[in-house]
Amino acid sequence: MVKEQVVAAIDQGTTSTRCLLFNHAGRMVAVSQLEHRQHYPRPGWVEHDVMEIWRNVERIVPAALREAGLTPDNLAALGIANQRETTVIWNRKTGRPLARAITWQDTRTEPLVEELAAAGKADLIRDICGMPPTTYFAGPRLRWLLDNVPGAREGAEKGDVLFGTMESWLIWQLTGGPAGGSHVTDVTNASRTMLMDIRDLRWDERLLRVLDIPRAMLPEIRPNATVYGSCRTVVPGVPIGGALGDQHAALFGQTCFKPGEAKCTYGTGAFLLMNTGARLATSPHGLIPTIGYVVGDGPPVYALEGSIAVTGSLVQWFRDSLELIDTAPQIESLATSVSDNGGCYIVPAFSGLYAPRWHPDARGVVVGLTSYVTKGHLARAVLEATGWQTREVVDAMNADAPPGLALTRLKVDGGMTANHLLMQFVADVIDVPVERPFVMEAVSLGAAYAAGLAVGYWADLAVLRSNWHRAGLWEPKMDADLRIVEHDNWNRAVERTYDWVRPA
Amino acid sequence: MPGRIQSIERAVAVLRLLDTADQPLELHEIADTLGLARTTTHGIVTTLRELGLVGQIHDHGPMHGRYEVAEAARLFGRGGPDPHELRSLAMNWADSLAAQTGLAVTLGVPTRSDVLVVHHVFRPDGTPQQLAVGQRRPLHASALGKALLAFASSGVRRLQGTELTPYTKRTIRTHQELTDALAAVRQDGFAIEDGELEPDRGAVAAPVQGPGGLAVAAVAAIGRRDELFDGRGQTQQDLVEPLKRTARALSREVRRLW
Lengths: 504, 258
Description:
The structure holds two protein chains of two kinds. By secondary structure, chain A is an alpha+beta fold. Helices cover about 35% and strands about 20% of the residues of chain A. In chain A, the strands form seven sheets. In chain A, strands 17-18-16-15-21-22-23 form a seven-stranded mixed beta sheet. In chain A, strands 3-2-1-5-14-13 form a six-stranded mixed beta sheet, sandwiched between helices. The mean pLDDT of chain A is about 95. By secondary structure, chain B is α+β, with helices and mostly antiparallel strands. Chain B folds into two domains: about 70 residues, Winged helix-like DNA-binding domain superfamily/Winged helix DNA-binding domain (Arc Repressor Mutant, subunit A, Orthogonal Bundle); about 180 residues, Beta-Lactamase, CATH 3.30.450. Chain B is about 45% helix and about 20% strand. In chain B, strand 8 and strand 9 form a beta hairpin. The mean pLDDT of chain B is about 85. At the A-B interface, helix 11 and strand 23 of A face helix 5 of B.
């Protein structure tokens, strides 16, 4: 009898690491999860202990296999999706990190990024890696570690200290660690370092000079679906076939393989990525041109990315700070207790406005308050804020996408897709159908798909696409005139957030 | 932390059941709906009556006491779990049931007079479908309704005196037929709808049971009649087990939440 074969995905996220197993139909058959500690040594600093995360990986993969009643022999391949831009350095001889990882939420590199801009490097950086210097990216964090961790720079120059984002760290450990582990990264994670040339997909000497990064410490850049090596521990012999940054993994898991196809993952924040095909878009509206994915020896597929800082976290604020609901899903019940927003709008510019508006001095507002407004109207305004922010990113994307590409449907995933009122509102205001697939775990599925493709478990992209099934669909229903009026009200509400914080 | 005290859970389920009933209920109706022994049920209602939370009336003669919630107990609030919380915790389970059976899946909660559909997963074959969330289903003519009638509301009595609207020629017309059908539902642990709402379509539903066994929702798999039932009208076995497993999993989640 043929052994049942499945593909494992490790989703190394911000608060937890999970292992999910998928079968040939793309259905999840098991999941195992462990959370890790968040370290906040100073205001604005957020760190992770990567040894803790590695030990979690050593436990969750066998646990997921146990849950499914399977053994490592049943694993055709393993793929990794990870929190992007989280930066780690470690010693290749001891296998120990030199410091805790600096996570993507950490803002300590602000002065460094301002310095780069002041030194006139912004244009050079944008021309090579596709985006202006910002604190998001891993490169400035690596520079901070080299400058501040004792022994880091000397070790890096001697070739003893290695740099990686989370997928590099995990692949290196899984493939043997100090005993010959593969030191590799994938193009999507590399594209978020500010060190890679986004056109030829190689580390760029000019950028390395600007940030003063020793070449010897960098991992080799590889495609997303390719065999990186075989595991020598945890599940010995199993090939690692895929690695992608989490949002790129979701694009892949949602099978957005054609130019113009787009997905939005709704969590604490939201990330909308559109496939722009072989063409790298430039974005006057401040979206991020990025790598979508690279399969094997194929050409790079580019994407445009727009992120929304505050979506699910606005619902959390409504629950935890205003205490108007006990659980997040209750917001839909409260919102459906009224038929409209009662003239009330909430703009959650909690730490300024980002793409496509770029007003760091903005702060949030609640406008349109009258004695008529109830908590039901506030609940609606909270949900509508996510809808209108999606609309702004979609408008920017349609404006900046290569000619001929425009969003005609939006595939959604993430926890907020459980909220039907919200999904209907998103469809209403972006005026295209919104659809949800069966597997809500698009990030993990994308990592599994890449890994399975690399080893031939799935034959090609067409097979993956045939695994995508619609579980729900929201068609736009809003009257066009009402959409125009409400959009105008939203815009006027947003204008009222500008310039609230005064220059010091 | 010690576990929950079962007799209190059962007492609360009795109170909620009486509270959602349009008329007072007889002892056997309470016992049958919640799946409790009559002696146990008698002990619970007697205690609740002595505590002033349940009233007893004898309008059908001294031997036929019927029970209702006393005013004092109505202060405890009513209703089941928030329907949107229910959807949120049901999503993965419902997706998985639909993927496994190839059928559409819905989740319904009871209202005073019918069933409200709070979640709907398309059948995974790519055919054009529309979300039924927000639609209503009749109690006597839908699988969701019958599963809820059998395990939650006041059973047939609730519909008594009302005309059972016929939707197709297979719709249950008489109260006696409905009583028999609900007894079968309690026996089987699932309810069927065999062309009773739409001629060629059917559904199979199982109750989602909160603390004390009271159904707070029902989950249904929906499809063509020939997909659900064999030539003799028997429900396909490979459908019943996954459906019941899903309902049990949801029941566990609900008890954790509520």
